[in-house]
Write a structure and sequence with these properties.
The complex is a heterodimer of chains A (516) and B (1146). Chain A is mainly alpha-helical and 516 residues long. Chain A contains 19 helices and 8 strands. A two-stranded antiparallel ribbon of chain A has the order 1-3. In chain A, strands 2-8 form a two-stranded antiparallel sheet. In chain A, a hairpin with a 2-residue loop joins strand 5 and strand 6. The termini of chain A are far apart. Chain B is mainly beta and 1146 residues long. Helices cover 10% and strands 46% of the residues of chain B. Classes of the chains: A mainly alpha (516), B mainly beta (1146). At the A-B interface, helix 1, helix 2, helix 5 and helix 19 of A face helix 2, strand 32, strand 33, strand 34 and strand 37 of B.
Chain lengths: 516, 1146
């Protein structure tokens, strides 16, 4: 027995321990990463890519746009996922809500990994700072999207590096999340370079103006979470001076000298035109795409008219709702650029006619969108997805001034009129009340910014207006279904999206928002 | 003073016997294992060094006066620490030894005693071995003869001179010659499968011996890991399937031959497609996320049947079966090791059972040429009854009416011109054939088998099929008396034509799903002769807006999918007999597999034209090379009459490297070149390329001791120490011991004379086994590369993709087994029963992490799963006169339970093909992979029932059980709605013989197993986008039909729970199947030229009794997954086939 045992031991000690070491052949491990400048750049580029994942897939956009009166879906029964978002029928099992929640936390971890690990790399301090600033901006943007949808969320201040970091955590108050976002953005404003200093392959990275604009948006959103906006008491987190701070930050962007409104709206969204004008002065931050596998987006098919030659799938996920389409004045230059009402099929041009639906011409009962639609059927969308742009800055400024002064002042009129004039519309009439001006700002926002992922968040800032619009539009239920009798927007559940069921299945200590 | 003497009733052993003194026997009882190991190791020392150290220091006082030598030895033993071992026959002649009484050293005493004999001695520790001095060979007595059985010569029979190791074996003609020292010697003739005979020579120079075959199955040799054992000496739970049984049903792959044959082994044909995947569970699934398939050991080469090594389809679907490259006709026997005593010899890989496959080897004798072949036809056994065009039109018009719309298809009768039965168009009657030629024999110490096989099966769904060409050469050469070499070599090529599976190109269906859901109002082709796609229906009404499926018929002609798999498995081995009973075996083996899969959608298909312009090509290549070295020392010895000892010690090393890559390109100028011109495509952003490489190493020490006392008390101890590269630093090595005891009660005096009980054995075993099937590199954290661009410039970034786990270690299964083997009435009835309990701890669990961590899962050792069950096998020779009937029935019940999930509360099957939130659940207290969802309690029949139902609903809706009674239906109302684990599985095989006719009838069944029929969600929802089953419409709720099976339709019909996982899609998959009936006729032959000729006809899958509504309740669309089991999602239909065959031997 002893001799056998010794034999075993000798053999083990002498021969084979090295053989059992693992050297991965086809992937990179974190142990030998985050060492130098190349690694740091690859890490921050990864964080941008993780952000793109949820912006370029449809979940996030569906959640922000379908519940508004402007965008509807077509071709699904009420059980369909898109129809549920359109018809206020979603619950905690909705797959898009889960997809966004999952991808957002993946993006947070990617950004936090940069914030946590790049300080230890050997590289120039200047570039290191810029990279950390970008990562904080990206982290703030994702946290802001999460907190606006879900309210209280698990606040991840650091990246997960071991299984211990991946412990189950409870939700943190939305107020704390806002504070963390503001901290990140204040750091980013300090560190990030101005847009004018970027050139070549650095264009598209986060800038100081982007951080200023986002921070202004954060204050504006938090400031609106108050009793006057009908926000339930448990969700009221507005702080004094939120609107003032927002306005100050927006002024910093407006006086910065780089960003401005483009003269031609088609350079932003014109079908087949806008690609040439990407990275223009109006764009403050966007998701950058090119038409290569994995480098582009997949939104074009979602907005193309149903079963048109402009889509490879049957299409119809996001279509215009008729009352919204009809609300555009004919001389509004945005109308023809925003909506797709004709296409060529078998050599014949067919045109949308709302009085002749279901015939052999235009295949959908409603128009589709040109906005976000790419000109060809190539594999992936090459068009950038705009997150922040100057028109949004002007409209936010008008909104903030109206809140601060409890009514419109001249600068507020100037801001909104600049946007209207570019669209070929006249100035707003003077002498509007606070409420009238607020309605006008939000109406303008919808027309100017539809499909740019502002819809649901805007609705939360002006809930009464949004509710009236949804109810006046097609009610709950598009033409395909008829109105629903069971659901109203009054339901508290429509202040926040549900924490996804899967997240609570994994971590049952996560609480749920009221109404779910 | 007394000695052991040889008893007369020893009948079997042909080995040397060593008799030990009574004191030593006592000693042995005290510490038997220590003794055995010492004896073993000292035998090794014997070869090196025979000198003693203490023999001169200890003194004894011995005096003999013409007494037996044994008395002197006994006297030395009594006074010293030494013990003697010797052959009784060798010392019994020395009975007049003299020695003056005196005190001398042991050495001097021995020298003086042995000087009077022809003996010498060696000292090994405390043992002194006496043996005869080497003598010059004397001119002996020559004897020759012939061994026959009936009229046949018997080659390869062992002929041994009783009491010696001297022996020979018979030649091809059954003849032997040998030279004897003693003309009165007794010769022992032994041969596997025949009764051993002893024949006294009595000075005859010619002996003719006729041996009779041994009908007692107990004399069978059973292959176990690293050796063989007589079935009667078996201590573990091992089941065998013979080549005869494998032949009874036409099979593509060897695992199919096991189905229903062995208690406790559940074989599920995951896909009935030719060459399709198979899953096997031996005594239930032990693991959740690691592998659950048994380890296959093919002629000594361990292979894990990992479907993920096959180049997959575009994304999902069942992978083809890697083992289908191996020709079942070459198999001599399949042994399935079930309990820990048997499987622990494979240590870290034994937890899910071991399937040992032994291929045919040549036997001494003249060359035997045989041809085996069959030809048959297959047809679809069952179809879904879908709506025809008129039904469909009626349905959609009623739906339109309820929505307040004008009829969508106003003239139902007009679509009958296009009344397309899509199932009909993709199914076909398909031929199946198999041809095998083998030549086998043995001559001048060289035994050989050559075989060649051709198998060709076309699929019952057009455009699918499987072909195999295989060649085998197995050789054994006796170089000299001590040294043998040999090899096995098989070269196989298989060609698998697969179908488009569901899940590819979501939301598109595969060909089966497409054929079931395609609208019956569509024509196959339009007026220009082009295939129509689903959106053609918008011509009739844009309201239909059908799902964008491909045209099923286009997929039978415009889809090309061919995988060529080449596999070479071979080894060479040498065996050297160092000493009597001590052998050294060394082997080197290789398993080289490469798979090249080419998929092309041409531009007549939707996928190759609309989804991807100008065709879609995917070429995927994978290559696995595995090398094995085994070094094994075995020691066999019978001590005295009663002690059988068998010791094995081995060191093995295995290494495997896996590489794969794939290329996808689209948009070709023409379809002519297909994959050969994949570089000519024009995919936006260039072709998509993926590559992967992996390597693992396993280093192992293996040991086993078998000890039998009087063949009645049998002990086995095994141990294996495995070092695997797959685990975390510091946890690479695992130790897996096991022990077993068997008691042959029938050899005890009180039973040996029983006429009723011919055999009774009780077995008990306990041991540890492990599981390493987690893939490679799982203990390491990883980053993944991702893509982004700035200002049009592509950049690659890295983000964390998985968390490492440096503590990752073995998953360990502890198994207890107690079994009983009972033979009654001279083994006319044989019963085998086992009870087992397996507990798997440190489960390798893909633990779901909180989503907020940024990761989804991590592999951790966490939790426990238990399997316990009973197995029963019953074999009977019911009739054995002129009309013979033998029957074999086996049944097994396994209960699977998740005992503990560590820190996880529960988790879900994550990647079900439909966007379910969750459909399968793993939770403490429930069986693995239970189905989880809303419970439907029939249909709300009337207003009264509606009033009694709290959640929002309408009359005619499903009544979904509001489990928490909160007045709404949501995720909190989910419960377990099904269990994929069967209550019991069984098989029943019957053989009838009358004259030259034989009939085999084989039933196989599964009871109490649920199947998740995902298809129903698609085509039992009365959605106008897809065709529906006929029953969904005719049996729906209407005011006139309140007792309906299905709910009404119309607005809101799906609002509540129907796109969730609910109990309506869970069906009872219990079934009883007449698996095969074979009628055979042995042609009586007068000619000597033909040895045998047999014709037969076989019907396969003749009927299935089941309530399952789909094609086949035996299904696993998710392949080998243990969490998502029995999922039917567009699965291949079951075939019924009729085969005519011939077996011919020259």
């Amino acid at each position: 027995m002893k001799s056998i045992r010794i034999l075993f031991l000798i053999a083990i000690l002498s021969s084979c321990t090295d053989v059992l070491d693992e050297y991965p052949m086809d992937f990179i491990g974190p142990a030998n990463f985050y060492k130098n400048q190349t690694d740091a750049l690859a890490a921050i580029n990864g964080a941008y890519s993780a952000l793109k994942t949820y912006y370029a897939e449809d979940s996030y956009l569906l959640m922000t746009e379908l519940p508004t009166e402007a965008v509807g879906t077509y071709g699904q029964t009420l059980a369909g996922e898109n129809a549920q978002l359109d018809e206020y029928l979603w619950n905690d099992g909705h797959p898009d809500i889960l997809a966004f929640y999952t991808n957002a936390y993946r993006a947070l971890n990617a950004a936090s990994s940069v914030v946590d690990r790049v300080p230890g790399t050997e590289m120039s301090e200047e570039l290191k700072n810029r990279i950390i600033g970008e990562a904080k901006f990206l982290r703030a943007l994702t946290n802001f999207n999460l907190v606006r949808f879900f309210g209280d969320i698990p606040l991840k201040r650091n990246s997960s590096r071991s299984l211990d970091d991946a412990a189950k955590v409870d939700r943190d108050p939305a107020a704390d999340v806002y504070e963390f976002i503001i901290e990140d953005l204040e750091d980013a404003v300090d560190i990030l370079p101005l847009r004018s200093t970027l050139s070549g392959a650095n264009i598209g990275r986060a800038t100081r103006e982007a951080a200023l604009t986002l921070l202004a948006k954060v204050y504006l959103q938090r400031g609106s979470m108050n009793a006057a906006n009908g926000v339930p008491e448990s969700l009221r987190i507005a702080q004094a001076n939120d609107f003032e701070r927002s306005a100050q930050l927006l002024e910093a962007v407006m006086t910065g000298g780089y960003h401005k409104l483009l003269d031609d709206y088609s350079h932003l969204w014109g079908f087949g035109v806008s690609l040439e004008h990407e990275n223009n002065e109006e764009v403050i931050f966007d998701i950058q795409n090119i038409a290569q596998n994995g480098f582009g987006a997949g939104l074009s098919d979602r907005v193309a008219p149903v079963n048109s030659p402009l889509t490879k799938s049957e299409g119809g996920t996001m279509q215009a709702e008729l009352p919204f389409y009809n609300s555009f004045a004919d001389d509004d230059v945005r109308k023809a650029i925003t909506f797709c009402t004709s296409y060529v099929i078998n050599g014949v041009t067919v045109v949308y006619d709302q009085n002749n639906i279901g015939g052999t011409g235009f295949r959908g009962p409603v128009p589709g969108f040109y906005k976000l639609l790419k000109p060809d059927l190539s594999a992936q969308d090459p068009n950038n997805f705009v997150v922040l742009r100057y028109a949004d800055v002007l409209l936010m400024y008008a909104e903030a001034l109206n809140e601060i002064n409890n009514g419109p002042v001249e600068d507020a009129y100037d801001a909104i009129n600049a946007v209207r004039n570019r669209a070929g519309l006249e100035d707003l009439p003077e002498g509007l009340t606070y409420a009238e001006f607020k309605d006008a700002v939000f109406t303008e926002r919808r027309k100017e910014l539809v499909l740019e992922a502002h819809g649901w968040f805007d609705s939360q800032r002006h809930f009464a207006w949004a509710k009236a619009r949804v109810e006046a539009s097609s009610g709950f239920g598009s033409s395909d279904f008829g109105p629903s009798t069971q659901i109203t927007v009054e339901d508290p559940k429509f202040r926040l999206m549900p924490i996804p069921r899967a997240a609570r299945d994994i971590n049952p200590s996560l609480s749920q928002n009221s109404g779910y | 003073m007394h000695f052991s003497t040889q008893t007369a009733h020893e009948r079997r052993s042909v080995f040397d016997r060593i008799v030990l003194s009574s004191q030593t026997r006592f000693y042995m009882k005290v510490n038997i294992l220590l003794f055995l190991l010492t004896a073993f190791s000292s035998s090794l020392l014997l070869a090196i060094d025979g000198s003693g150290q203490d023999i001169e220091k200890e003194s004894v006082t011995v005096g003999l006066n013409g007494e037996a030598l044994a008395s002197g030895l006994k006297s030395i033993e009594a006074q010293s620490s030494f013990r003697f071992t010797y052959r009784v026959s060798e010392i019994s002649t020395y009975d007049k030894i003299k020695l003056r009484t005196g005190t001398r050293s042991v050495k001097t005493t021995l020298d003086l005693l042995l000087a009077q004999t022809n003996l010498t001695y060696n000292q090994i520790g405390n043992y002194i071995v006496l043996s005869p001095k080497e003598e010059a060979p004397v001119q002996g007595f020559n004897v020759r003869g012939r061994v026959t059985s009936g009229d046949e010569p018997l080659p390869g029979v062992n002929v041994i001179v009783k009491g010696t190791t001297q022996g020979t074996s018979t030649d091809a003609d059954g003849r032997f010659t040998m030279s004897l020292d003693d003309p009165d010697a007794v010769l022992i003739f032994s041969f596997i499968g025949y009764v051993t005979q002893e024949v006294a020579v009595r000075s005859r120079s010619e002996l003719n011996v006729s041996m009779s075959s041994d009908m007692q199955s107990l004399e069978e040799v059973v292959v176990v890991g690293y050796g063989t054992v007589n079935k009667r000496d078996l201590t573990g739970s091992v089941a065998s399937v013979s080549s005869e049984q494998l032949k009874q049903v036409p099979i593509t792959s060897l695992e199919q031959g096991i189905q229903g044959r062995v208690a406790g082994v559940q074989v599920t044909q995951a896909s009935t497609a030719p060459g399709g995947g198979i899953t096997i569970r031996v005594r239930g699934g032990t693991s959740i996320n690691a592998g659950n398939e048994p380890l296959y050991v093919i002629d000594g080469f361990p292979i894990y049947n990992d479907a993920t090594m096959m180049p997959s389809t575009v994304d999902e679907g069942v992978s083809p079966n890697p083992l289908s490259t191996i020709n079942p006709s070459d198999i001599e026997s399949i042994e399935i090791l079930k309990d820990a005593s048997a499987t622990a010899i494979y240590g870290a890989r034994g937890a899910n059972g071991v399937v040992i496959i032994t291929t045919k080897r040549g036997k001494p004798g003249k060359a035997r040429i045989s041809y085996e072949g069959y030809y048959g036809v297959q047809e679809v056994a069952k179809r879904y009854e879908m709506m025809n065009a008129a039904d469909y039109a009626t349905m959609v018009n009623e739906i339109a009416e309820r929505k307040g719309h004008a009829p969508y298809l106003p003239t139902p009768e007009s679509y009958e011109n296009n009344d397309t039965d899509w199932q009909d168009l993709i199914f076909q009657q398909a031929p199946i054939q198999n041809h095998q030629i083998s030549i086998s024999g043995g001559d001048r110490g060289l035994n050989y088998t050559f075989s060649g096989n051709y198998y060709d099966q076309e699929g019952i769904v057009k455009n699918s099929g499987f072909k195999r060409y295989s060649f085998r050469v197995n050789l054994d050469k006796e170089v000299n008396e001590r040294f043998k070499i040999g090899n096995t070599l098989s070269i196989n090529r298989s060609i698998t034509n697969s179908l488009v599976a569901n899940g590819e190109n979501s939301p598109q269906n595969g060909i089966i799903g497409a054929a079931l859901t395609a609208l019956p109002i569509l024509p196959v082709k339009d007026e220009n002769g082009n295939y129509v796609f689903a959106n053609y229906a918008n011509k009739y009404s844009t309201r239909l807006n059908p799902r964008d499926n491909d045209n099923p018929v286009a997929l039978t002609t415009g889809y090309f999918d061919e995988m060529i798999s080449d596999r070479v498995i071979g080894n060479i081995f040498g065996e050297y007999k160092i000493l009597d009973g001590l052998k050294f075996h060394v082997s080197f083996g290789a398993d080289l597999a490469k798979n090249n899969r080419e998929i092309y959608f041409d531009r007549t298909t939707y996928y190759g034209s609309v989804k991807n312009e100008g065709g879609y090509a995917r070429t995927a290549y994978s290559e696995k090379s595995s090398f094995l070295n085994e070094n094994m020392l075995t020691y066999n010895k019978t001590f005295g009459n009663d002690h059988d000892l068998n010791v094995m010690l081995a060191y093995t090393w295995q290494n495997e490297v896996f590489k794969s890559h794939s290329i996808v390109n689209v948009n070709f100028i023409t379809d002519i070149q297909k994959n050969a011109g994949i570089e000519t495509g024009n995919r936006a952003g260039g072709p998509s390329i993926n590559a992967s490489q992996q390597r693992w190493d396993l280093v192992s020490w293996v040991g086993r001791v078998n000890y039998g006392f009087k063949h009645k008390y049998l002990f086995t101890a095994t141990a294996r120490m495995d070092g695997s590269s797959r685990f975390g630093d510091g946890n690479k090595w695992g130790f897996f011991p096991s022990g077993a005891f068997a008691w042959r009660v029938s050899d005890e005096n009180f039973l040996s004379s029983s006429r009723t009980v011919s055999d009774l054995k009780l077995r008990v075993s306990y041991g540890l086994t492990g599981n390493t099937e987690i893939g490679t590199y799982r203990s390491l954290a990883a980053l993944e590369n991702v893509r982004y661009s700035f200002n049009g410039n592509p950049v690659i970034g890295f983000i964390p993709s998985s968390l490492g786990n440096p503590d990752l270690r073995w998953e360990t299964t502890k198994q207890f087994d107690i079994g009983l083997d009972l033979g009654l009435l001279n083994d006319r009835i044989v019963l085998n029963m086992d009870y087992y309990r397996k507990r798997t701890d440190d489960l390798l669990l893909e633990v779901t992490l909180p989503i907020s961590s940024g990761f989804t899962t991590a592999l951790k050792n966490s939790g426990s799963v238990e399997n316990k069950g009973v197995e029963l096998g019953l074999t009977g020779r019911v009739l054995d006169k002129k009309f013979k009937w033998t029957t074999n029935f086996n049944i097994a019940a396994n209960r699977n339970l998740v005992v503990d999930l560590g820190e996880s509360d529960r988790f879900f099957g994550l990647d079900l093909p439909v966007k379910f939130i969750s459909a399968t659940l793993v939770q403490e207290g429930y069986p693995l992979g239970a189905y989880y969802g809303l419970k439907v309690d029939g249909v709300i029949r009337n207003e009264e029932e509606l009033a009694a139902y709290k959640p929002a609903a309408q009359v005619g809706d499903y009544r979904i059980v509001d489990q928490n009674d909160d007045g709404k239906i949501d995720g909190d109302d989910r419960v377990i709605v099904g269990n994929p684990n069967p209550d019991y599985i069984y098989g029943w095989n019957n053989n009838f013989e009358y004259g030259n006719f034989s009939l085999n009838v084989f039933f196989q069944g599964v009871e109490g197993m649920d199947v998740l029929n995902i298809n129903l969600i698609q085509f039992e929802n009365l959605a106008v986008k897809v065709n529906n089953t006929k029953r969904r419409f005719t049996e729906r709720w209407t005011p006139e039909n309140p007792n309906a099976k299905f709910p009404k339709y119309g607005p809101g019909e799906q609002a509540v729970g129907s796109n969730e996982m609910n109990s309506q899609v869970v069906e009872d998959g219990s079934h009883l199947r007449l698996k095969a009936v074979t009628l055979g006729y042995n042609v009586p032959l007068k000619s000597d030229k033909i040895h045998s000729l047999k014709f037969y006809v076989t019907g396969k899958n003749l009927f299935t009794i089941t309530d399952y509504s789909g094609y086949n309740p035996e299904v696993n669309s998710r392949g080998q997954s243990n969490v998502n089991r029995n999922i039917d999602w567009g699965a291949y239909p079951l075939d019924r086939s009729y085969v005519f065959g011939v077996n011919l031997t020259f």
